[in-house]
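Q: Here's a chain of 225 amino acids. Please give me its 3D structure as tokens.
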Amino acid sequence: QPMDAVVLIGGCDKTVPAQLMAAVSADVPAIQLITGPMLVGYHKGEMLGACTDCRRLWGQHRAGAMDQDEVEVVSGRLAPTQGTCMVMGTASTMACLVEALGIALPGTGSIPATHADRIRAAEASGRQAAALAQGGLRPSELLTEAAFRNAMVVLQAIGGSTNGLVHLAAIARRRGITIDLEEFDQIGRKVPVLVDLKPSGAQYMEHFHWAGGVPRLMQELRDHL
């Protein structure tokens, strides 16, 4: 396609790595725009999130502790808005990693899907794509060995999805770079886990975003980057 630059609009776990793999192969100036996580829902005073709480609550239903009517109510509150899963699953992991890789604007990976800042992020990404079309950096120049190492540091610090490493390896391979699993292990022994999100923690993506998101996280990790 005769394009001077592209905005890669994706959100779920496999769309973002697929778009980045294609961007590296085409090597046309590109910027990633994440679609954003859902807001949390509530049921009987408890905060709920898709992809994590659903399994626990379905287990309660199967055990007879929750009837069909209540399950129907809960289903509507597990995914109450548009957006990707609001836990630190693969979608949220990739949203953080694109910022760490430097192929998305800072702070745009974690904005809730329903927030007005998401529209502002889209407009800003479009402006940046237009600037890239005037001779800006291509994916091959952005996605360097150092960028992938930074992404591995962030992946460890967010307690991200195990799929994140598989996707990083696939994107890197398109770039001719091999992810060193031993290095990833060593990074994990030195880098602290700083993000307290489900499924391993307690909070959700909107809380991470309002705490400063990836830019604030990377500031804390600056000695490891």
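Q: Can you summarize the key feature?
A: The CA atoms of residues 219 and 225 lie 9 Å apart.
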